[in-house]
Amino acid sequence: MGLKTKVLATAGAGAMAAGLLLSGAAGAQAAAAGLPYAVTAYENVNVRSGPATTYGITGHVAAGEVRGASCWKHGETIKDNGYTNDVWVRLAEGYVSAVYLDGDQYGGLPASATC
Question: pTM for this structure?
């Protein structure tokens, strides 16, 4: 599994014992979705009903768009843009590969935020 190190584009993130407290626009968006984390896509990406490209497309995230996320899980390994990763992040409408999200190998979510 490759690690990617991009600047996490989550506005005002701070850890709390019960989860991640977010403020600013990213925090407002995640809170509005009822989800504890905010993730940002660095390029346009499909959202899938499960953690693999064989699952149907349930939506899209545009480059630079911030979305609420709840957790991550291992799924299909994706190789793109020089990164290889099998982590998929759960959004309200489905899963997106962490390869396309700002942050670390977990798309900016804590390693403990498993589904």
Answer: 0.74
- Residue 30 and residue 38 in contact, taking contact as beta carbons nearer than 8 Å: yes
Strands 57-61 and 94-97, how do they pair?
Answer: unpaired
pLDDT at residue number 5:
37
* Number of other CB atoms surrounding residue 66 within 10 Å: 22
**How many CA atoms, within 13 angstroms, populate the side-chain half-sphere of residue 94?**
18
* Token reading at 99: 């390869």
Tens of pLDDT, residues 46-62: 999 999 999 999 999 99
Closest among 38, 42, 62, 58 to 50, alpha carbons compared: 58
DSSP lists the bridge partners of residue 25 as none
Kindly report the number of other CB atoms within 10 A of residue 83's CB atom.
17
Which stretches of the chain score pLDDT less than 50?
1-23, 26-27, 32
CB 66 within 8 A of CB 38: yes
